[in-house]
Write a structure and sequence with these properties.
The chain has 14 helices and eight strands. The protein is elongated, with a radius of gyration of 27 Å. Helices cover about 50% and strands about 10% of the residues. By secondary structure, it is α/β, with parallel strands linked by helices. The chain has two domains: about 230 residues, Phosphatidylinositol Transfer Protein Sec14p (3-Layer(aba) Sandwich); about 100 residues, no CATH class.
Length: about 350
């Protein structure tokens, strides 16, 4: 299934098919994605290769993990070891968090049954409580609109002083999230038994005392390899749509020319900007053509179309329903001829003014 279609379903399931709230959630998530990954990756899956070396190092620390098949009801577990949160570079932290949360799109079963979120406060901290609270507060809206159904949450701690910090986290949670959270305190064994009472057994994948984080080194590496395998499967499924010569288009490539009257997107689209530059380059030549020789003008239009196709690898796309249609060459040539005529008219009007 195409990535963008999967992404549209996540907010619907997360909001119990409240379409208005789902739309707001989708907008917020794309705004967050644009902020931390830029425009080029806005409509694409964030892969392991899209992360910087610093991003990858943070993920390997085990500060956040999506654990599959460790809940008796078949729900996934989003496990966070808060003591490993390094918020000295908030951008890196948010990029890594987005990457891990976005991995939920690969598991429709988790979306249907809901996700168990676990926040583990045990251990010595890399960043201070106040810094972590500030980072969470800065993205409160994004936290409240995470694209998954939060079945239940569990907060684990062995230090009574952490109560103050937990109250700080609760303050930035939505009411719905607060009602779904459970608190577990005591020794590691007591917390382990308390989680098992809720059908959660993480004893075989978490190593609380390990300096590398909550998961064993092989567990973290196994998770990364699974992500890379899914990334490769996605690349293969997307290949037909990324090929500039393909007649299929579920989304425009940057070099494509967007047709129609989309005044918000088309004027600033890279392919449209390049198209106008090529038209301007040949407008003077088109203007000087003899009106009695239409073949000469047609030849220029065909040449311009060839440059756009072969030089820029651009296709002419027009929006249709939920996809983009690649127009036939004869229609593309007609569009080029019309653009050249308008550019030539502008030159003529300028000379006569």
């Amino acid at each position: 299934m195409h990535y963008a279609r999967v992404k549209r379903k996540l907010p619907l399931r997360a909001t119990r098919f409240d379409t208005k709230r789902a739309a707001e959630t989708l907008v917020i998530r794309y705004n967050v994605k644009q902020k931390f990954f830029g425009d080029d990756l806005l409509i694409h899956r964030i892969t392991w290769d899209d992360l910087t070396t610093e991003d990858q190092t943070m993920i390997k620390s085990g500060f956040y993990q999506l654990i599959i098949d460790h809940d008796r009801t078949g729900r996934g577990t989003l496990y966070s070891r808060l003591c490993l949160w390094d918020v000295s570079n908030p951008v890196v932290f948010h990029r890594c968090t987005y990457y891990i949360v976005e991995a939920l799109s690969d598991y429709p079963e988790i979306q249907r049954k809901g996700l168990v979120s676990i926040g583990d406060f045990r251990g010595s901290w890399k960043s201070s409580f106040l810094k972590v609270i500030k980072v969470i507060g800065d993205v409160k809206e994004a936290i409240d609109r995470l694209p998954y159904h939060n079945a239940t949450g569990h907060l684990l701690y062995d230090d009574p002083k952490v109560d103050v910090f937990i109250q700080g986290i609760r303050a930035v949670m939505s009411q719905e999230h607060r009602m779904r959270h459970r608190f577990h305190s005591g020794s590691n064994m007591e917390i382990d038994y308390s989680l098992r009472a809720f059908g959660i057994d993480l004893s075989d994948c978490l190593d609380v005392h390990s300096p590398i984080g909550p998961m064993s080194s092989w567990g973290i590496e196994e998770d990364i390899q699974r992500r890379q395998k899914l990334d490769e499967e996605w690349r293969r499924s997307e290949a037909p749509y990324r090929d500039p010569s393909s007649r299929l288009a579920l989304f425009p490539n940057p070099q494509d020319i967007i047709l129609g009257h989309n005044k918000k997107v088309a004027p600033t689209w890279p392919g449209n900007i390049a198209y106008r530059e090529v038209i301007d380059q040949y407008a003077q030549q088109y203007f000087l053509c003899n009106d009695d020789n239409p073949f000469e003008k047609t030849s220029i239009a065909v040449h311009v179309l060839s440059i756009l196709h072969r030089g820029y690898m651009g296709r002419f796309l027009i929006r249709k329903d939920m996809t983009w249609d690649v127009v036939e060459d004869i229609e593309a040539q007609r569009r080029v001829s019309r653009s050249l005529r308008m550019a030539a008219k502008a030159i003529r009007d300028h000379k006569h003014s």
